[in-house]
């Protein structure tokens, strides 16, 4: 694992920064756990406790979460560039302080929606910041591996917490006991972020000083246009990220309801809800590393197409074993895509404006939660759960083909790193 030292003495690389990197992996696991406390229980709360019969109404908490998180992602990148990474991370945990209590004892569905607004801000600030901080620490050569560890920690924690809260709910009821786990995560994460995590902004500045392309004075609007539309790799990554999290909204909000209509118990639904993010999370430790060796584009294309096949299997199946296979395949497909898309952003964006590019990408990606909640809810209300799932499968396949056609390979090949590297021109020079 290569280590480089800047003229100012700051060392880039995984080995040189292993202690802080490992701490940030733990913090991001706690970020994922905050999300995991909802994955099994909240769809069932909407039906059993608050008696929301319309799917669109029942999925409003995902819409609130996704829209808020997407917008917060955008500002998280800009704020971390301006004020530093650590203050943004701490702010994200402070904002989440009321969330477990609101979920556990909120007297109406409006309280659940409000809790998910706060959770969206929390996730946008904390997850974005841990991503940026890990990219800062490791430098360019192990970016895929770093993102694999980051996303693996978060989504393994999502899976473990989803299974744990499902088991708790099966024995103690849907509220309040499952959400006490989230309260414990919150206290631990706030303490670690305040007293143990160190600022990493100077690492990004050190990398920028060594970058072969000098930093240009670009505006956030120019970066947003480049990431969203004009650069083929960045824009292809942004649309794939949106569709990927649209899938996740489907798995979060619709799959448990489908499983319940076929008579599965809360504990069985909890197992299925955990299986997909568990495979997704653990797999990213391999796929992030793999993308550093074989490139990004083909892994993303294959992952989106595999997700489409897995979602189609969920729609076609009617038994626990078949759904379990589908969840495993969906997890593998997502593992191929998730850290690799972030690595694409890190490959192309200049270190001087990379945090803002990550924020724009994550705006699109987590906007997929909101789009997925609306699309799946409307289709499920009009045509049924199965039709909604088939529609999302077709959309996911289309996204994978878009990556195959539009994205260029972004990872510098070890055999000819200088020739293969593609640093984009300044945003004001992109057609």
Automatic annotation (TrEMBL):
Q: Where does the Major facilitator superfamily (MFS) profile domain start and stop, copy by copy?
A: 17-411
Q: Which PANTHER family match?
A: INTEGRAL MEMBRANE TRANSPORT PROTEIN (PTHR23517:SF3), RESISTANCE PROTEIN MDTM, PUTATIVE-RELATED-RELATED (PTHR23517)
Q: Which organism is it from?
A: Streptomyces davaonensis (strain DSM 101723 / JCM 4913 / KCC S-0913 / 768)
Keyword Glycoprotein listed: no
**A matching Pfam family:** MFS_1
GO cellular component, alphabetical, reads: plasma membrane
State any single GO MF term: transmembrane transporter activity
Record membrane topology: Multi-pass membrane protein
Q: What's the protein here called?
A: Major facilitator superfamily MFS_1
* Highest taxon, organism lineage: Bacteria
Where does it localize?
Answer: Cell membrane
Q: Which UniProt keywords apply?
A: Cell membrane, Membrane, Transmembrane, Transmembrane helix, Transport
**Keyword set includes Transport:** yes
Residue ranges annotated as transmembrane are 12-35, 55-76, 88-105, 111-132, 152-173, 179-197, 299-318, 324-346, 367-383
Name the major location.
Answer: membrane
Q: Which CDD domains match?
A: MFS_MdtG_SLC18_like (cd17325)
Q: What is the lineage of its organism?
A: Bacteria, Bacillati, Actinomycetota, Actinomycetes, Kitasatosporales
């Amino acid at each position: 694992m290569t280590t480089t030292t800047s003229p100012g003495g700051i060392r880039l690389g995984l080995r040189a920064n292993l202690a802080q990197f490992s701490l940030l992996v733990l913090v991001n696991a706690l970020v994922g756990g905050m999300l995991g406390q909802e994955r099994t229980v909240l769809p069932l709360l909407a039906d059993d406790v608050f008696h929301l019969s319309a799917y669109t109404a029942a999925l409003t908490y995902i819409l609130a979460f996704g829209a808020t998180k997407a917008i917060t992602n955008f500002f998280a990148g800009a704020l971390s560039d301006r004020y530093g990474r650590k203050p943004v991370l701490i702010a994200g945990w402070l904002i989440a302080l009321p969330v477990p209590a609101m979920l556990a004892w909120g007297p109406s569905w409006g309280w659940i929606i409000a809790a998910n607004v706060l959770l969206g801000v929390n996730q946008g600030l904390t997850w974005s910041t841990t991503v940026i901080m890990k990219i800062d620490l490791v430098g360019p050569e192990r970016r895929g591996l770093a993102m694999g560890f980051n996303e693996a920690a978060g989504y393994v924690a999502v899976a473990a917490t989803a299974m744990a809260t499902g088991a708790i709910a099966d024995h103690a009821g849907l509220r309040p006991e499952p959400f006490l786990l989230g309260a414990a995560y919150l206290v631990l994460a706030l303490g670690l972020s305040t007293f143990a995590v160190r600022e990493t902004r100077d690492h990004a500045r050190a990398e920028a000083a060594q970058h072969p392309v000098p930093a240009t004075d670009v505006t956030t609007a120019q970066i947003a246009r480049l990431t969203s539309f004009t650069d083929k790799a960045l824009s292809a990554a942004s649309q794939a990220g949106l569709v990927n999290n649209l899938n996740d909204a489907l798995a979060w909000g619709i799959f448990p309801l489908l499983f319940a209509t076929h008579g599965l118990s809360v504990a069985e639904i909890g197992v299925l809800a955990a299986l997909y993010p568990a495979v997704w999370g653990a797999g990213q430790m391999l796929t992030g590393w793999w993308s550093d060796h074989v490139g990004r584009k083909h892994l993303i294309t294959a992952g989106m197409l595999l997700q489409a096949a897995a979602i189609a299997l969920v729609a076609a199946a009617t038994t626990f074993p078949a759904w379990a296979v589908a969840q495993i395949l969906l997890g593998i497909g997502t593992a191929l895509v998730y850290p690799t898309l972030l690595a694409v952003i890190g490959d192309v964006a200049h270190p001087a404006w990379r945090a803002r590019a990550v924020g724009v990408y994550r705006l699109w990606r987590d906007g997929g939660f909101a789009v997925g909640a609306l699309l799946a809810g409307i289709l499920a209300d009009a045509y049924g759960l199965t039709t909604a799932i088939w529609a999302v499968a077709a959309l996911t396949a289309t996204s994978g083909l878009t990556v195959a056609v539009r994205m260029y390979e972004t990872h510098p090949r070890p055999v000819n790193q200088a020739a293969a590297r593609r640093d984009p021109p300044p945003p004001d020079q992109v057609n």
